[in-house]
Amino acid sequence: MEIWINPACSKCRSALDLLDAEGAGYTVRRYLEDVPSPDEIREVLERLGLEPWDITRTREAVAGELGLEEWPRDDGSRERWIAALSEHPRLIQRPIITAEDGTAVVARTDEAVRDALSR
C-alpha cells in the first residue's frame, strides 16, 4: 500500500494516524517532491476509476492561473488534464491510497482510509 501525501495537509496527517493506529504497512510518497509522471497518474486514475478532473483541486491558485474551470471535461481533453497534474502536482487531490488489491481511494475521510484497509 502506498499513500500520496503533502505533509502540510491535515487530511494526510489524519490518514497516516489512522493507518498507524491500524498497524497497516504502507509506503509514503511525498508527491510534491516525488512528482508522479503522466503514466503514474494514468495508472492511479485507472485504479480509482476516475477521470483527471475528478481528482483536481480546482481552488488552488495555479488552477485559476491555468483557467481549469474552463477546460473541457471530455476524452479529447483528458491528456491535457493529466499533463497539468504532473506539471503542477499541487493540483492533485490528497491523500490517495493505492490498495493491496490494485484499486485506490482518495482518502479524505476516515471511512475512505478504512475502505482502503479492507481491500
What number is the mean pLDDT?
Answer: 97
- The helicity comes to 25-40%
Structural class by sheet pairing and helices = alpha+beta
- The N- to C-terminal Cα distance equals 10 Å
CATH architecture: 3-Layer(aba) Sandwich
Query: Rg to the nearest angstrom?
Result: 14 Å
Give the CATH H-level superfamily.
Glutaredoxin
As residue ranges, the low-confidence spans are none
- Output the helix-strand order: EHEHHHEEH
Shape: globular
Strand content: 5-15%
Number of domains: 1
Keywords: Oxidoreductase
GO molecular function: arsenate reductase (glutaredoxin) activity
Protein name: Arsenate reductase
Family: Belongs to the ArsC family.
Provide an overview of this structure:
- InterPro entries: Arsenate_reductase (IPR006659), Arsenate_reductase-like (IPR006660), Thioredoxin-like_sf (IPR036249).
- It comes from Streptomyces prasinopilosus.
- Keywords: Oxidoreductase.
- GO terms for molecular function: arsenate reductase (glutaredoxin) activity.
- Belongs to the ArsC family.
- With 119 residues, the chain is α+β, with helices and mostly antiparallel strands.
- The protein has one domain: Glutaredoxin (3-Layer(aba) Sandwich), CATH 3.40.30.10.
- The chain has helices spanning 10-21, 38-48, 61-66, 78-87, 110-117, and strands at 2-5, 27-30, 96-98, 104-106.
- The protein has a four-stranded mixed sheet, with helices on both faces.
- α1 crosses α5 (110-117).
- The longest helix has 12 residues, at 10-21.
- It is globular and about 40 Å long.
- The N and C termini lie close together (10 Å).
